[in-house]
Amino acid sequence: MKLWLILALAFAACNEPRGVVLWHAYSDQERTALEANAAAWNSTHPDTPLTLVFVPHDAFADKLSSAIPRGNGPDLFIYPQDRIGDWADAGVIEPLEFWVDDARADRFAEDALGAMTYRDSLWGLPFAQKTLALYYRTDLVAQPPNTTDELLALAPAMRARHGFALAYANVDLYGHSPWLHGFGGRVMDDAGKLAIATPEAAAAMTFARELVTTGAVPDDAQDPLVASLFNEGRAATAMAGPYFAANIADGVPWKVAPLPIISATGKPAAPFASTEGVLMSARAANKATAFAVMDFLTQDRQAKVRALRGHQIVPNAVLGTDPELVEDKVISAFTRQLAHVVPMPKGSGMRVVWTPYRTALGDVLSGRAEPYQRLVKLEGEIAGYAERK
Prior knowledge:
With 389 residues, this protein is of the alpha/beta class. It has 2 domains: 183 residues, Periplasmic binding protein-like II (D-Maltodextrin-Binding Protein, domain 2, 3-Layer(aba) Sandwich), CATH 3.40.190.10; 174 residues, Periplasmic binding protein-like II (D-Maltodextrin-Binding Protein, domain 2), CATH 3.40.190.10. The protein is built from 17 helices and 14 strands. The strands form 4 sheets. Strands 1, 2, 3, 6, 13 and 14 form a 6-stranded mixed sheet that branches. The protein has a 4-stranded mixed sheet with strand order 8-9-7-10.
């Protein structure tokens, strides 16, 4: 090959635009809103384009944990806080405090920024807050139930319609969390130690089982069935996150309200609140450029796009001051729900909790096990997994 051609190819390679790759698991309107954010970056940064790569949620964490230590994977990714401790301890993600000054920090709600911290370091920029609230069909429910007793009072009329008072992902810990915390139970204590086998947690499981045995809720309703029951008028209410609004069919009359008070305890049903952050790989090719993308995506202007187009509860202070966001019926209801939530634990042991807890819930709801005894067994299982990690 001629010398001039070799030099030309080398020059072209050195000047080839170097972009940033971001992995996400968003779909529907959330994905559309994120794509709009990316297009806004790319329109003004043609030399460092942002490429979005969709990865299914079920495979997301394992792919990251495998790819990044080998020098593969994305520069950035979006994920909730519950794996931050695990990834920080393993050297998978990059601390960010070098880049984040007070002005940037002030952009975010204090609790959201706190969710991104671990061992005195900041590991992500808050991107969206997720929790559960109560959707209700206004043609079936005149006013949202204020208590669980009022919620259960809807059951007889709904059974007559071959339907349910409530539909939610009842076998998942995330879906069960409002009852767990409303009865005073926890997964971990303030020191990050397991606190699963308690009388309060057993009472919450007993309540969840009674919802099934009395026909107030379906046996096992995952998100697709929840949406179907709600759209067909076979569920008067649904407990779900902001994303659920995109699944409601045209013509269905609905509103959103905070979750009811637990009648047995007088405490609000308190779901987990997770903060999704945009995190940087410890192997990011150009960390300064990667952080510039993070900074851009989490600015107020881009957050507002995601709030209005993606129904995301953005963790920016603008959420409470922008008139369009304040008047949005989904955003306003979820903002009120955030007053009664429990932050999702982010210790390195949290990742081993989800699947065993789901199995235990399934055993109790189906009547195969008694709540307290099953929780004792569950805590032992999870402690064993954590020790072998």
